[in-house]
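During the second year of the project, the team shifted from modelling isolated chains to modelling whole assemblies. The rationale, set out in the original proposal, was that interfaces cannot be judged from single-chain predictions alone. As a representative example for this report, we include one of the complexes processed in the last quarter. Its constituent sequences, exactly as entered into the pipeline, are reproduced here:
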Amino acid sequence: MRELFRRQPRFTHQIAGEDDTRQSVPDDLWVKCPTCGELTYHKEHLRSLRVCQRCGHHFRLSAVERIDILADEDSFEEWDAEITTADPLDFTVEGESYLDKAAGTVIRTGIRESLLSGMIQIDGRSVATVVTDFAFMGASMGSVYGEKLARACERAVDESMPLLTISASGGARMQEGLFSLMQMAKTTAALTRIGNARLPHISLLTDPCYGGVTASYATVADVILAEPGALIGFAGPRVIEQITRQKLPPGFQTAEFLLEHGMIDLVVPRSNLVTTLSSLFDLYAGVRPVRRTSRRKLVESLDSTETVVPVGQLTGPATARRIDGA
Amino acid sequence: MVRETQLITALSPWDRVQLARQAGRPHTQAYIRGLCDEFVELHGDRMSGDDLALIGGLGRFRGRTVMIVGHQKGETTKENIERNFGMPRPRGYRKALRLMRQAEKFYVPVLSFIDTPGADPGLASEEGGQAFAIADSIFTMTDLATPIIAVVIGEGGSGGALAIGVADRVLMLENAIYSVASPEASAAILWKDTTRAPEAAASLRVNADDLLAFGLIDEVIREEPPAHEDPAHTITVVGDAIARHLAEIDEFWRPGTAGERVLLESRYAKYRAMGRWSDSTFMVPTNGNL
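Output from the structure prediction step:
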């Protein structure tokens, strides 16, 4: 039995500016739980991975915090950080251009876009990982998000690593118009590469996850996990009530609601995340006849030992679906 | 005639939104009737029911069998209520998915007609996994080993449109719109004010010519005159465009050959290239914090 709290949150990974409020809350602050009102001493709050110890409310995490609680110490290697926002539509609202807004968000949040990608190690196993940050324009999916995710998929295939996507998002980014919508197709298409290479995709849905992200790559996974109480759906509750005038039941669109309706595999408390992910990656590694080789080498190795899996089955789209289909 | 053309080019983005939603504009069924000399509608997702907002079936188009899927709006208010204003529920997308997989199995091309304000946002659709159904459909289309031609004939609204819109060729009628969210929803998201939809339509560049210039669609089909004024003519012109693109694809695609791989690789490359970003570090603040 693993010790659940073996990992202490470190919050030392400073990509961010020193003045970022999320990371430099003075030690003497108390944190109030929005659900039950419980006051927790800040250090204690971090030690409990930002989960309320009284009611179990999971606070939202930044992308950097997320990596800190999952990755083995200092194992995060960021990819494609140089890809930053462009303004394809020449979009200006109330005198503020999209690029100005994005630049302001960069300074405020200390990250360059709404999605971080890279390699982390979880219990010594290398995992291609993408994480979104809701503080960056609601972690909306635009061109940078899509490109970094597609590159991460391709790199995972090249280096034969499993893929972990951790998503919170308000959906597509309005300011890039149809470019944003097409990121749904682009990211989902990239997952066919992961599937054809027989690499697992594990998707973790966190609060809140809506729209184009829920309706694309994030739900096309071999395993879909969600954090307790996370709100996950296609249309937001306000939109549903406005358009349909339907009264929504209590607990609507929570992770538990989705589990009950058969849409996700597991609801995993934050304290169990590392052990759950570690077990899953372990088990998926066990089903692969060859580990840590490029796909071409994998195909060749299967070619010479045809008893394992006929090569023909490795490339067909139907097979990919059987592995990846949600 | 010249004056009319000038009139059309002077249309504002919001005018195009109105035209895309114009009563009398041909919907999917009209295209099926106009383009197929034989058609059998196929119903149901084999799980939970049938959806009248997304229809499909096998048809014969200019001598060859095709699988057709498409959003269907109503012609009257009563029919619109029956058809949920062309907003599919999860079972609609699952039906489309079933039909497209069948098309792959029999190597028949898929023709998709896009005309929806968006996917149904109701309580039951959420319970039924609307996002999951859409994602599954998109995923399947990105790797479906048979040619897919999509035509945006009216409103291309958001993920509900893209769910049957991943294709080797995406064609769009001149007065159709295709957007990340409906202009009303975009205005609500951007300014919390749906009355600013005309502004949103202009800022979001929802028009066919803009989208062609961005490389997000493959061809604009001219409407001369606007589709609702001469539906039969519009349908014929759309049919000609589809036939031309199918013939182009036929030049390299043969079932079960390397051409199948070429088809899928080209489709992947096309979507892989969509997006605009900057490779520079233009946003690094001068105080050296980053």
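Chain A touches chain B through 79 residues (CB under 8 Å). The first strand of chain A starts at residue 30 and ends at 32.
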